[in-house]
Amino acid sequence: MALDSSTAAVLFAAGLIFLLALVLGIWKYRQMATSENHLAHPYVDTAHRAALLYAFATTMVAVFVHYSDFSDTVNLIAAFTMIFYFVAAIVSYAIHGALRDTDNQIRDAVHGTHAFFWTLVVGEVGGFVVLLAGFARAQIF
Prior knowledge:
The protein is mostly helical. The chain is 79% helix and 0% strand. It contains four helices and no strands. It is flat, with a radius of gyration of 17 Å.
């Protein structure tokens, strides 16, 4: 059964994020196996867990894209805005894990951190509101 191209694109992104989670899991395991306390750096752990969660969240986003009444363009912009921020968060966590520069990026925020978080809030929540509205319009109203 073939999927429409917008749903397929979002599911492919979910698969890539899940693959990233698996690779981050290898990194986490290596840190656990080689560290004195058998723990990975907190942000390596966070990157791994976030990637797992975002992979499944992206799969859910694909369902809303599939059943939305809005155009493919609107759905893809909404979905990939969310996906951009999902991946940006994972990459940010991985960078902090690799640099071992902090165990709390909010406490040790650099210039622009809070502004980025507010754009993340607007992008993720706004993107999902669009998809939810498209779903509601097609499936409920």
